[in-house]
Amino acid sequence: MSGLLHVAMAPKPGLSLDQFHEWYNNEHGPTRLRMPHMFQNGLRYRATDGLDPEFLAVYDVTDMSLLETPTYTELRERRSPREAETIGQVDVNRRFLDLVGSQQSESFVPAEQLTDDDAAGRVLIQVEVSLRDNAPDAEAETVRWYAEEHIPMLAKVPGWLRSRIFRTPAKIEGQVSTPVTVITLHEFAQDNALEGPEHRASMNTPWRTKVFASYIAEKHRRAYEILYIFGPGPRELDSLAKLPRSKSFTAMDKKWATTAGECPHISAFVTTADGLTIPYRLEGSTAANAPTVAFSNSLLTSLHMWDPLVEILKAARPDLRILRYDTRGRHAVPEPPVPATLDMLADDIATLIAALRIPKLHALIGVSMGGATTLKFALKYPHLTERFIACDFNVASSDANTQAWKDRIAMAESPEQGISALAKVTVPRWFHEYTMTDRTNIANWMTEMVAENSVQGFRYGCQALWGYNMREEMKGCTVPGLFVVGDQDGKGALVKAMDGFKGSLGKEGAELKIVEKAGHLPMCEDPEGFWKAIEGFL
């Protein structure tokens, strides 16, 4: 039986609302949304009727029996110290509700399928009726009245979206001695005619009078407005920014952390459809609807390759939210291992932004394999980004390149050489000779980053660059793009290659910007020069 996890909460005096919201939005809710087999969604509401408890969270549950399994019960038994401390300062009324019936308008879309802006203002009316103990048919007759008269009449109220009937205690809890309570949740658009003539008519019928006189002992009505919609990825920077640095948090498994204070950021992860963990970092503007720029790194590097550029970007464009992630293959590959493809890499970005409830990127920026991934993403998901910047990449691979990757795999897997040896020969090939001689700190930083890559991840990750060709596909691109390249990438060969295919992007082609005295990673070698190249387009 499907149903609802229904949690009403009232923070006690002394607990700051920022701390309460940051904990709930970044830790508590996303932890549950990472179990889609159990929780279909997670929504928070705030009371608009001035009554307590002020906050309500509801989670649609696929099968109520799952709430008795260790997968769920251990969430409560293994709370983090921060969660235990915070929840101890909150009055919590947690209930399991069995779904009895549901009716919805033809235009109804679940809130979790809307953008935050489109879902804003949605109204939830909760009506709770306790049934008389001495009326054996009370539950059946009350539910029948709701289903056959009351809800069909509510459906005539302008702005009505959906009504659902629940009962508690849930079957998994047993009947015990608690009287049955029927709870109805009625959802309305922000613009609605609650308290209008259609609504008043639904409250004044002979059948309703009979039901209340014969079967209902008590009635309580609450009114709420939607506050927050969970995704499996923590993303709430606003409350985090309002907390002192001392309220930063690291999960017990070390897989995610939040940094509070003036420059808040979240380091966490999402899980792909094939079970791979993708780490990400979110920072920049704390506004929930801030335009987001995402970055796709090159093979063998991490999300930290963008560190110098991100510092420039945060200073120059404080209006932007910044999202970085580690490409699959950086740390691991799925089990059983399968070669990566550009389609997979594009899908990973779509999975990531969906988990963070980002409806559309302001821009996607990628370099090398990340540049090819960026173009593939723009081609496959044109509705998910407004523009893209693809750097130091080729639109198609060659047999010679494929053989080169096989040779590099052999080096990385060799007991005599290994990934460290690969790093030492890779970085000089990437960087301008000036960087290798006069900016050794940059070269050393990158060499260490490459050497930390998973060897198995490299073996399967680099295969995304084997046997691909987007020459024809890019002609139909509808997303504006900018190409950027270091002047000495491949000793100038890549400049010629990108100049050759820049005119094939969509109907108008793409501009090619060249960063002087830079090689394969111009944003690492000359972040200021790279910023000047992309600033106008971004």
From TrEMBL:
User: Has keyword Hydrolase?
Assistant: yes
As one GO molecular function, the record gives: hydrolase activity
InterPro entries assigned to the protein according to its UniProt record, in alphabetical order: AB_hydrolase_1, AB_hydrolase_fold, AB_hydrolase_sf, Dimeric_a/b-barrel
Which Gene Ontology cellular component annotation is one that this UniProt entry carries? membrane
* Pfam families registered for this protein in UniProt: Abhydrolase_6
Print the keywords alphabetically: Hydrolase
- Please tell me whether the keyword Disulfide bond is annotated for this protein: no
The segment(s) forming the AB hydrolase-1 domain are 305-530
Tell me the protein's name. Alpha/Beta hydrolase protein
Provide the organism lineage as a comma list.
Eukaryota, Fungi, Dikarya, Ascomycota, Pezizomycotina
